[in-house]
Amino acid sequence: MTAQAKASPRLRMNLNFHESLEDKCHRFLNAVEPGAGIHIHHHPTKEESFILLRGKVRLTTYNDEGTIIEDIILDPLQGRYGVNIGKNVWHTIEALESSVIFECKEGPFVPHEEEGVLKV
Length: 120
Known about the structure:
The protein has 120 residues and is mostly beta strands. It has a single domain (2-107), classed as Jelly Rolls (Sandwich), CATH 2.60.120. It contains 2 helices and 8 strands, in the order H-E-E-E-E-E-E-E-E-H. The chain has helices spanning 2-7, 112-115; strands spanning 12-16, 25-32, 48-54, 57-62, 68-74, 82-85, 90-95, 99-106. A hairpin with an 8-residue loop joins strand 1 and strand 2.
């Protein structure tokens, strides 16, 4: 997955454990490389959990006005493995090094563009 993420124009690659985008629970690995563009987004009706398996990422959350609420580094070597993001919380992840994240959230899939993108 990491090799595929490095070769991808998006610099990330998913490996889904759920069978369909319509499934009620989405579980997947997300390989993310530095420079991957993950826009600030939110899920109005869904919580999302991240568990960092390898690497180091910055997770930033924002309020509706675009002010940073929390800016943390997930790094297993420092004992920071994961986070749960509540419903309707604006957030983004930045890979600080080649990373693999286990993600889990409620389905079905709704593209971020339909859920809204915060302009900061």
